[in-house]
């Protein structure tokens, strides 16, 4: 029987605790509640990474919302964006005249959200806003900013709370820095 390896052994350090994520999600939820009262916005979760943040965030939004999901890929298993954004699953709803809120786990290079914003502007929504749990401005290669940001983080390889390395570590309840030896092998 293979010995179980705990995920924590691969963590260099915890950057954002579960409690900090919960508190920031509550704060952002309250802001969205005020801004979107009586507007019924569509929250678009960018899969797969946004799921933990989206699930925590919507618990704190006290107005009507609709949920949609997209599958968009730009990493393809590596540690850096390939620069090519592929839409694997688009939203199912007509977004014409609707308020849209993209929910992201991280903005790094910014390519994915820039491409999504440009695509959705052509669909004539009432508005487009971006909420991200973490923003890594040092990784940015295009001009884009979130409208609402949970945490600004250093240029390190982050995992946990939706953030992954090769589809692993998303289930950590916090955001940590992955040890370099894990992805340099």
Automatic annotation (TrEMBL):
Source organism superkingdom: Bacteria
Catalytic reactions on record: IMP + diphosphate = hypoxanthine + 5-phospho-alpha-D-ribose 1-diphosphate; GMP + diphosphate = guanine + 5-phospho-alpha-D-ribose 1-diphosphate
Database matches in SUPFAM superfamilies: PRTase-like
Cofactor(s) annotated in UniProt: Mg(2+)
Localization, UniProt: Cytoplasm
Gene transcribed to yield this protein: hpt
Signal peptide from the UniProt entry: none
Its EC number(s): 2.4.2.8
Family recorded in the similarity comment: Belongs to the purine/pyrimidine phosphoribosyltransferase family.
Pfam family, one: Pribosyltran
UniProt entry tagged with the keyword Nucleotide-binding: yes
Chief localization: cytoplasm
Role this protein plays: Purine salvage pathway enzyme that catalyzes the transfer of the ribosyl-5-phosphate group from 5-phospho-alpha-D-ribose 1-diphosphate (PRPP) to the N9 position of the 6-oxopurines hypoxanthine and guanine to form the corresponding ribonucleotides IMP (inosine 5'-monophosphate) and GMP (guanosine 5'-monophosphate), with the release of PPi.
High-level lineage: Bacteria, Bacillati, Bacillota, Bacilli, Lactobacillales
Name under which the protein is recorded: Hypoxanthine phosphoribosyltransferase
Enzyme class: transferase
One Gene Ontology term of the molecular function aspect: nucleotide binding
Key words of the record: Cytoplasm, Glycosyltransferase, Magnesium, Metal-binding, Nucleotide-binding, Purine salvage, Transferase
The Phosphoribosyltransferase domain, residue ranges: 22-165
GO biological process: GMP salvage; guanine salvage; hypoxanthine metabolic process; IMP salvage; purine ribonucleoside salvage
Pathway(s) served: Purine metabolism; IMP biosynthesis via salvage pathway; IMP from hypoxanthine: step 1/1; Purine metabolism; GMP biosynthesis via salvage pathway; GMP from guanine: step 1/1
One of the record's GO cellular component terms: cytosol
